[in-house]
Every structure is written in structure tokens, then in C-alpha cells.
């Protein structure tokens, strides 16, 4: 069994970005990360094939939906393991030689996007670090970066 991630037809990610992602995912191997086992980039299709994890994803485990409850010690072990294998070179590998950023159309999951990237449309290594930091905070707090129906910002009067 495998898990398939298929880009939407209207996805703005181009071939070079997809190829850079495949190259990065092909280099990262760790017991706590799902492995990329294949991909397709034909006839406008962008498909990633991952090993199948029967217990669901990290969000399922953080929420208890998978039946696995991650206590603080287990979450800390995941954080440390992820920090040891983190590669902040995805944006760098997509950049043209001689520059330290690449300009693209903004894409990604809200809550994980670097606000500077969102505003400037320039990917830098800081963009990868920002997204990694959001995932680390997600693990520490066991909460999603953006939760539907909640407002984490308080107004000047203290009411949120």
C-alpha cells in the first residue's frame, strides 16, 4: 500500500519547483519521516507517492483521532528527531545560481507560510525555517497553527 499526494489541476507549482521537491524528498531518510517511493510528472500531472502509514498523520495523532495520543515526552522526541534531519535547502535548491532567493507565485498551506514570502513572493531559506518553526510549535502545543472558529488575537480591550 502507498499514499498518493496529487496536485490540483489548477496548482501553480511548475515543473522546476516540483522537481526540486522530489529531489529534496529523495534525499531525506529517517525513521520518523515517511519516505518518498515514487513520483509522476507527465501530462500535467504532479503526483508524489509515499510509503503508507496506517496510523494516520501527525495531525491525527496530535488530535487523538488516530487512536494514538502523543504525550509531551513523545512530542519532544519527534521534535528532536525532526530537527536532526531538517533540511532548509528546498528554497535554496530552487533558486537560480548567483541569487539567494527565487521568485514564485505564492503557494502553500495557510498557517505554515512565511509572511515575508507571502508579501514579497520571494522564497528564501528563512521561508523554510519559518515553516519548520510552525510545525515545531504545532508539536509543542498539540494545536493547529490556524483553528477554525477561534481567534487567537486579542483586541486592545483584551477581548479575543
UniProtKB/TrEMBL annotation:
<dbReference type="InterPro" id="IPR011009">
    <property type="entry name" value="Kinase-like_dom_sf"/>
</dbReference>
<dbReference type="GO" id="GO:0005524">
    <property type="term" value="F:ATP binding"/>
</dbReference>
<dbReference type="GO" id="GO:0004674">
    <property type="term" value="F:protein serine/threonine kinase activity"/>
</dbReference>
<dbReference type="Pfam" id="PF07714">
    <property type="entry name" value="PK_Tyr_Ser-Thr"/>
</dbReference>
<keyword id="KW-0418">Kinase</keyword>
<protein>
    <submittedName>
        <fullName>Putative leucine-rich repeat receptor-like protein kinase</fullName>
    </submittedName>
</protein>
<dbReference type="InterPro" id="IPR000719">
    <property type="entry name" value="Prot_kinase_dom"/>
</dbReference>
<keyword id="KW-0808">Transferase</keyword>
<dbReference type="InterPro" id="IPR001245">
    <property type="entry name" value="Ser-Thr/Tyr_kinase_cat_dom"/>
</dbReference>
<feature type="domain" description="Protein kinase">
    <location>
        <begin position="1"/>
        <end position="160"/>
    </location>
</feature>
<keyword id="KW-0675">Receptor</keyword>
<keyword id="KW-0547">Nucleotide-binding</keyword>
<keyword id="KW-0067">ATP-binding</keyword>
<keyword id="KW-0723">Serine/threonine-protein kinase</keyword>
